[in-house]
């Protein structure tokens, strides 16, 4: 397998409660790590793997070649799950996995522009057919808009200074590369604040990646779409990698578990909104210390699982 270590692999697939003749969707195929583990448990069932990155589809196709008769791989955005399923003639599914964010394969390739450690073009698109790139955001968005995404999506407290430094720098010379941007960010954060914590560019790069790929905007609706196509008893397992993402997963699950919007003093529900989910993981499942030691990317991972009622 090409190197992307699947996070919370066994925990996820066990909580998915795979039925051997079921139909499953991996909405974030990547290198196919989670898919492979699902496929090993199938006998007569099938797996639909989706990724918006054509390169991931090609890598997964190779990694999953032993199961090719049970797999359908599709380039697409998991938010469009309903259309994707109708295109392949599937009505309802027995379970789904979403392992959000980017893969090591994407980050490790400097040409993709995700990395603040290796110089490359400021791209960050998961789907090469999308129009918006990090270069466009960094060079054309207003200072206020930049500060806002860096603050919200990056949870970066130096967001205003970083946005200001970016606007100053691009006034002198267009910002084309990840290396250039990482230097600008570094210069915006005071030295004493740089001494502790992660790489100074980590949060801003996360923010840009989320903005380029609309990762946060689509999440809640995408989860609801998945729940609509789950058979009763079918489960959805979602792994997130930062608190913003995890909060959306938690809130969306809660909303679907208890959707009633009636005032609390009414004796009975009249809004007619029905429960669609039962939350299986009251608290998120976290990786154990051994996994974190072997895979630094697992450090912030959280798995939440819910079941269609
Ligand atoms: C963390 S990786 C998945 C790794 C995979 N579980 C494995 O074990 O190999 C996330 C993958 O999801 C894809 N992705 C992210 N958002 C997506 C979306 N909205 N629709 C489809 N794919 C998406 C990325 O391109 C990336 O390949
Ligand atoms: Zn109600």
TrEMBL record:
Q: What is this protein called?
A: Ribosomal RNA small subunit methyltransferase H
Q: Which GO terms describe its cellular component?
A: cytoplasm
Q: Its Gene Ontology biological processes?
A: rRNA base methylation
Under the GO molecular function aspect, what terms does this record hold?
A: rRNA (cytosine-N4-)-methyltransferase activity
* Family per record: Belongs to the methyltransferase superfamily. RsmH family.
Q: Which organism is it from?
A: Calorimonas adulescens
HAMAP family cross-referenced by the UniProt entry: 16SrRNA_methyltr_H (MF_01007)
Q: Which Gene3D superfamilies match?
A: Putative methyltransferase TM0872, insert domain, Vaccinia Virus protein VP39
Residues bound to S-adenosyl-L-methionine: 32-34, 51, 78, 99, 106
């Amino acid at each position: 397998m090409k190197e992307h270590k699947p996070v919370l692999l066994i925990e996820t697939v066990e909580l998915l409660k795979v039925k051997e003749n079921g139909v499953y969707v991996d909405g974030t195929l990547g290198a196919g790590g989670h898919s492979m583990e699902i496929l090993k448990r199938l006998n007569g069932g099938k797996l639909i793997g989706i990724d918006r990155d054509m390169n991931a589809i090609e890598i997964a196709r190779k990694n999953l070649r032993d199961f090719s008769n049970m797999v359908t791989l599709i380039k697409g955005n998991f938010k469009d799950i309903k259309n994707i399923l109708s295109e392949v003639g599937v009505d309802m599914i027995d379970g789904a996995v979403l392992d959000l964010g980017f893969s090591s394969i994407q980050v490790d390739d400097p040409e993709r522009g995700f990395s603040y450690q290796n110089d490359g073009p400021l791209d960050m698109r998961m789907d090469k057919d999308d129009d918006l790139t990090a270069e466009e955001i960094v060079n054309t968005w207003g200072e206020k808009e930049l500060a806002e995404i860096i603050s919200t999506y990056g949870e970066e407290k130096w967001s205003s200074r970083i946005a200001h430094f970016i606007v100053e720098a691009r006034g002198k010379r267009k910002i084309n590369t990840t290396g250039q941007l990482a230097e600008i960010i570094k210069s915006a954060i005071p030295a004493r604040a740089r001494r502790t914590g992660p790489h100074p560019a980590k949060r801003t790069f996360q923010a840009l990646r989320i903005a380029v790929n609309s990762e946060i905007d689509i999440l809640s609706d995408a989860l609801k779409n998945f729940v609509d196509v789950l058979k009763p008893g079918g489960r959805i397992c979602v792994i997130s990698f930062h608190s913003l993402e995890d909060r959306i997963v938690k809130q969306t699950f809660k909303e679907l578990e208890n959707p009633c919007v009636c005032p609390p003093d009414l004796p009975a529900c009249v809004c007619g909104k029905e429960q669609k989910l039962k939350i299986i993981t009251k608290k998120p499942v976290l990786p154990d210390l051994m996994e974190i030691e072997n895979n630094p990317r697992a450090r912030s991972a959280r798995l939440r699982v819910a079941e269609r009622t």
